Amino acid sequence: MTARTGEDERGHLGAVGFIGAGNMAAAILANIYDRSYVVASRRSINALRALEDAYGIKTTTDNGEVVRRTDTVFICVKPQSLDELFEELAGIDFSQKLVISILAGKPISTFTSHLDNCTRVVRAMPNLGLLVGKGATAYALSDGCLPADGKLAHTLLNAGAVAMRVEERDIDTITALSGCGPAFLSYFLGAMQAAAIERGLDPAVAKALLFQTVAGTYEYLSRNDAAYDAFIAKVASKGGATQAGLDAGKEAGICGSIEKMMDAAIRRSRELGS
Ligand SMILES: NC(=O)c1ccc[n+]([C@@H]2O[C@H](COP(=O)([O-])OP(=O)(O)OC[C@H]3O[C@@H](n4cnc5c(N)ncnc54)[C@H](OP(=O)(O)O)[C@@H]3O)[C@@H](O)[C@H]2O)c1
């Protein structure tokens, strides 16, 4: 028996489960408006108590119970924990369940081939912008998904995020772009801030000016269709400081480094899936 009541103000979302309720699961469920039908699992009882207190959800250490009590099951364990999870879920009928996986690398076929009678699978790649209601999430649907599944998945994944349906073949690249993106951008910004502080700038001044620069740059680019080169040209005059910095960056191979970061993330995503 599921924990849902059927038609309700959420537009019949049904009960929603989260297996592997860690950082990303918490970020997703925190953005779900009505969490009274959410059931989550992980192994740490203390962490489950904390989730109950923070979000008013139901919890259990029994992953099978999450499946049995819900209609839509998010799978949010690390890719390395998946085999163990499949063993635990062996024998449970998934024919009436929609599975939403957020695991990096793992293709839809992993779930249809390891979970009994499982045909309705969404492979999603969220990001931690969800922590501040500004996530970027891409998702692909299995051939077995019903028309309503796409709508339901979009509603859940669009909460606190901009969700976009894509082809599954693009998800490894999206993993590098927007899944890893918050860490890559933080790394770049942190390096800029540290360099300014190391050269004598007051840390608070460095941070305030950098953040406002990020805000202004984002705002300009979003209003001007990501016109990167045009904005660079507005800042960089010939023989000026910006041009000198750009030239040094190019000479040091900064574009090559960024491509290497992207390629390494894409490669690792593919490895996790094999
Ligand atoms: N972090 C990101 O930015 C990001 C972005 C996109 C996608 N993802 C994907 O999201 C998934 C989770 O990442 P995360 O950062 O949220 O990791 P995380 O915080 O480590 O969460 C994973 C959770 O799974 C639980 N777990 C492990 N084995 C389990 C089992 N057998 N049964 C039930 N729960 C189990 C762990 O809790 P216990 O030890 O208490 O069981 C842990 O809290 C990964 O597959 C990752 O590829 C992450």
Protein described:
It contains twelve helices and eight strands. The protein has two domains: 152 residues, Rossmann fold; 93 residues, ProC C-terminal domain-like (ProC C-terminal domain-like fold, Orthogonal Bundle), CATH 1.10.3730.10. The two termini are 35 Å apart. The protein has an eight-stranded mixed sheet with strand order 3-2-1-4-5-6-7-8, with helices on both faces. Strand 7, helix 6 and strand 8 form a beta-alpha-beta unit. With 274 residues, it is of the alpha/beta class. NADP nicotinamide-adenine-dinucleotide phosphate binds next to helix 1 and helix 4.
What amount of the residues lies in strands? Answer: 5-15%
Q: Class of the largest domain in CATH?
A: Alpha Beta
Instruction: Please tell me how large the radius of gyration is.
Output: 22 Å
The H/E string reads EHEHEHEHEHEEHEHHHHHH
Molecular shape: elongated
Strand tally is: 8
Taking the alpha carbons of the first and last residues, their distance comes to 35 Å
* CATH homologous superfamily heading of the largest domain: NAD(P)-binding Rossmann-like Domain
Oligomer: single chain
Identify the bound ligands.
Answer: NADP nicotinamide-adenine-dinucleotide phosphate
Keywords for this entry:
12 helices, elongated, alpha/beta, 274 residues, 8 strands, ProC C-terminal domain-like fold, Rossmann fold, 51% helix, binds NADP nicotinamide-adenine-dinucleotide phosphate
